[in-house]
Amino acid sequence: MVVEFPGLAKPVAMSLALWSPGMIVVGACSLSAVADWWSCRFGQPYHTVRERLRDVYREKEAKAGKRRRQLDVELCWAP
What we know:
mainly alpha; 48% helix; globular
C-alpha cells in the first residue's frame, strides 16, 4: 500500500516518514531519541539528522533557504 500526500514537498514527506518508524523502534517520540537512532542507521552526524527532523514542524521563517515551506497539517488528513 502506497500512501501519497500530493500537497507536501518531498523533503517534508520524507521527514514525516522518518518520524513514524523512528518513534516505534525507539519507543519514544522525543526528537533526541529519534535523531540518535536514525543518525546511527544513516551514518550521518546526529545534529544533521536532528535538524532535518526539526524542519518538519518549524515555521518557514525559521528555516534556511529560499524554497522552504511550512507544514500545513490539514494536508495530512483525508477530506
